[in-house]
C-alpha cells in the first residue's frame, strides 16, 4: 500500500478539481458536459487513491491507467468546452497544461512500478 496523500500526482489531481472549470458554463449543460467533466476530474485523484489502497503494484498500475484515461477524457472535454466558448482560451490552455503534467506524472509512476 502507498500513501496517496503524499503523491504529487494525487495533489495535482485535486488542484484540477479546485479550478471549478465548469462554473461559467450555461445551465443547460448541467446534465451534459458539466456532469461529464465533473466525473472525469474527480476520477483522476480518486483512482490514484484507490490504486494506492490495493495490495499489489499490478493493481495500482491498473488504477493509474484508469486515472490516465480520465485525464485524456477531461482534456478532450475542455477542448470541446473551448470550441463552444464555455471557457476562455487562456483558462483552457492553462488547465490542459496541468492535465498534461498529470499525464506525465502518472506515466512516470507506472514505469517506476516495474509490473
Your description of this structure?
This protein has helices spanning 8-18, 33-52, 57-83, 89-112. With 115 residues, it is mainly alpha-helical. The radius of gyration is 15 Å and the shape is elongated. The two termini are 15 Å apart. The mean pLDDT is 92.
Give the rounded overall mean pLDDT.
92
Contiguous runs where pLDDT drops below 50 for at least 5 residues: none
Strand content: under 5%
Reading the helices and strands in chain order gives HHHH
> Which class do the helix and strand fractions yield?
mainly alpha
Q: How many extended strands? A: 0
Helix content: over 70%
Give a quick summary of the entry.
This protein has 115 residues and is mainly alpha-helical.
Key traits:
115 residues, mainly alpha, de novo design (two linked rop proteins), 0% strand, elongated
Topology of this structure?
Blueprint: H1 8-18, H2 33-52, H3 57-83, H4 89-112
Helix pairs in contact: 1-2, 1-4, 2-3, 3-4
